[in-house]
Every structure is written in C-alpha cells, then in structure tokens.
Amino acid sequence: MTPSLERLAELVRQAEAKTRAKKIEAETQHAADHFRAAELRSRQALERMRAVRPASLRAVEQADTDEHLLKDLVRKLAQYKSSLASDADAEELIATSQAEIERTRQEAKANLEKAGRELEEARRELRTALDQYRQLRRELERLQPGLVEQFAAEDRLLWDAESHFPGGQLQLLGHEVDAGLNAFANLVKLEQYARLKVWIGRFRHFQAAHERDAEITEELQALGHRIFHQLKWLSRQYEPGYIEAFRQDYSTDWAAYVAEAQEQLVQAMETQRRARERSLANGGERPSPSEPPHADGPVPNVAFPSSPLGNGENGDGGREASAEVSTDPA
C-alpha cells in the first residue's frame, strides 16, 4: 500500500469511527432515557407492592378469622335453634356474612396478585433496559471514552437499579470485582485504595441491608463469601492502605461511605490522567502504577497507616468483617 493510499484508508477509518460513535452516542442517550424511565416504574411498582402486601395479608388473615368465628356461631345457632325468634333472619345473616368474608378475601388476593404482576413486568422491562444501556455504554466507551462522562448519573443509578432484583447488587459487585482483578495491579496506589474501598463498602452495605433477610439463598451466600475473600486477597496482595471497613466491629452509614470512596476514586483517576497526559506531552514514559503520580491539582485526602490489613488482622488489631450474609429471621 502506498503512503497516500495508507493515509486515505486512515481518513476513511476515522470518518467511519466518528460516524459510528455519533450513532452509538444517540443510541446510548435513548437507552439511558429508557433506563431511567424503567427504573422509576420499577421503583414505583416496588413501593406499591410494599404498601399493598401487608394490607392484603392482614385482610386475608382477618377473613380467615371471621370465617372461623362464623363457623363457631353457626354451630351455636344449631344448638339454640329452638330459641331463635326467626330462622330466616339467622340464615340471611349467615349467607351475607359468608359473602362478605369471601369478597374480602378475593379482593385482597386480587390486589396482591395485581401488584405482583405489575412488579414482575416492571422488573422485566428494567432488566431489558439495563442490559441494553450497559451494552451501548461499553461500546461508546470503546469508541469515544471522552463522551461517557455525560452518563455519570446513569452509571450511578445502575447500582440502585440492581436493588430491584433479589441479590442483584451483590451479583453486580461480583461482576465488577471479577472484571477488575486483572487490571488491579496496573493501578496506582491511590486508585487501588479508593477502588477497594468502594468495593468493600458496597459489600458491607449489602450485608447490612440484608442482615436479617430470610430470602438470601445459598447461592448468594456463596457469592458473598467469594467476593469477600477476593477483596481480602487484593488488600493483602497489594497493600494499598488501611481500610477500616474490613473490621467486623466497624459500622457507619454505608451509602455515605461508598459515596465518599467513589469521590476519592474519581479524584485518583483524574490525577493519574493528568500525570499521564503531561508525561506523554513531554515525551516521557507513562507513570509507573507502583507509585502515585506527582501531579498538580487535588489529591484524595486519604491516610495510609503503616499497618495495612494482613494475616487476618487490621491495623488496630480489630477482627475482620465476616463474609456471612445472615439468613436468621429477626
């Protein structure tokens, strides 16, 4: 291939990539809108179920109690039938009571079934929207990494959206940890520290939220064990810094903890990006992942005590958090 032909081919390739990127950006925006709408519908359906379920169960329970009482009264009426002023009145009241009890029971069951159907439909729509958004989001990041920042809000919503599915957040965390294991060694210490803090914070958040959840399956229990031991291994292998969330006796507002860690991660990534751009602009080598970059601008305000997590102990001698997600009822 001649030099001019090679340059022409490169121009065509760049034009195709830009056209594809624009198309993917528009599709991703559409998928993001659909995802937000589906998440809202699922959240509303879940709220309706949480409101309808207790009331419906109480109504069914009351109907069962009333039915038992009616049967008891009918037996007594049979014993004292000769003393009744009017058999017709008693029989009419019995029939009316039976109809009211059955109507109450059927209405409660119908309300519960309707809320259940709406929730399942909303969850199916949300799962489809989630998968579509993730696929397009990955493609957009591959073609135009600089454009993904506009979808930061949707990226944060992904974690909340998984809470609509039983065990969804834990499964999402497992996928994130698995995907990040190989690249973890290439991160600078600050990014390793923040990313590990995000992961263990999410794990403890899920653990605290489902501490007394009897619906946690053995499969989710096993997944929780695997994730926790992966995080322990990363902490011991790379020693990015002391993270108190590994301590079993440490408790906090886990949502706020994760939000703070995510902010630290963003700052660490931005610091590394600036250092890399400056190094490449100066014709130097890329910054080594083993050392934090000496870059201008904000640096995450994190401390690195001299005793990182290791050998089953944290820096101050506290016990490690357990990998158990309790299934014991309250």
Task: Describe the protein.
Helices cover 70% and strands 0% of the residues. The protein is mostly helical. The chain folds into two domains: 1-146, Helix Hairpins (Orthogonal Bundle), CATH 1.10.287; 166-330, no CATH class.
Individual helix count: 7
User: What is the chain-wise order of helices and strands?
Assistant: HHHHHHH
Radius of gyration: 30 Å
Q: What is the 3D form?
A: elongated
Low confidence ranges: 290-317, 326-330
Report mean pLDDT, rounded to a whole number.
81
How many domain units? 2
What composes the largest sheet?
A: none
Distance between the termini: 74 Å
The helix content, as a percent range, equals: over 70%
Structural class: mainly alpha
Query: How much of the polypeptide forms β-strand, as a percent range?
Result: under 5%
Quaternary class:
single chain
Q: How many beta-strand segments?
A: 0
Keywords: Coiled coil
Condensed summary:
With 330 residues, this protein is an all-alpha fold. The chain has helices spanning 3-79, 87-143, 152-162, 168-184, 189-209, 218-238, 254-281. Helix 4 runs parallel beside helix 6 and helix 5 packs antiparallel against helix 7 (254-281).
